[in-house]
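Structure tokens please, single chain.
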Amino acid sequence: MNAIKMLAVVLIIAGGLALAYGGFSYTKETHQTKIGPIELSVKDTERVNVPLWAGVSAIALGLVLLVIRK
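Here you go.
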């Protein structure tokens, strides 16, 4: 399997996941203060939304790369 086909498969899978889930979330930990042995920290969960057009475009580009053979 050459690099172009592998990229095409990755784009199709990523586009499908973007359509299925609509985005992803991650946890960011920030350290507020440290007083002696006591450390206060805050964990923020943030969500990144992937637009519908980005998922469809990734799938379409992956399919085009699979069809075009070099």
